[in-house]
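W.,

You were right to be curious about this one. When I first looked at the sequence I had no strong expectations either way, so I just let the prediction run and decided to look at it fresh. Below is the sequence, 66 residues in total, followed by the output.
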Amino acid sequence: MTSLHTLPIARQTLTAHEHSWVVDSRHPTSDGVVLYVRCGGCDTRRVDLQTHPTMPPAALSQELRH
């Protein structure tokens, strides 16, 4: 049942896109190569770790928007 005194919930419109990660710098460590990456489209940044040269990097941090 809907009350006449309720307001509709506002929709959040987020424009999501697939990030195109660009490596800003890379540093070898005992765990693998640490990659500092940013999205070329929206400038979001992240830190990744590549544990083996044939494996894709995995995110170590959350995405940070500038």
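Here's what jumped out at me. The two ends are 43 Å apart (CA to CA). And, maybe more interesting for your project: The CA atoms of residues 42 and 58 lie 20 Å apart.

Coffee later to discuss?

I.
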